[in-house]
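Form 7-S
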Amino acid sequence: MRIVQATLEHLDLLTPLFIKYREFYGELPFPDSSRKFLETRLKRKESIIYLALADDEDKLLGYCQLYPSYSSLSLKRVWILNDIYVAEDARRMLVADRLLQTAKQMAKETQAVRMRVATSVDNEVAQKTYESIGFRVDERFKNYTLELGD
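Output:
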């Protein structure tokens, strides 16, 4: 497996897996809107997307997408690991681990103070994976969200 940073050339390969990620969390597929969303993020350099590709073919095994943020308290960069998804037939191949290690290295190289990630409370597989590379539950701050509608 090789990990590469996504470019616009990868949109056709990435979009179907991005749709599966959305469906995993109960969203409708919206293929055209999903592709446009990814295209916009890449064109504007608003996120970094890493792809895990099979060595022997251009098959996408998984991806992760990170967004930059900043910490006013530490006066440093923070990376938000917003998406990570592994194709069903690639699970148990350490794809998520490789993607997370790549993201962690990039965060260090950009002098980030931390990476943040959230997952559903019942996604124990993801929680164990995050903890295995050093993520810890935030005991200092309680996170809230404000839904603003469509």
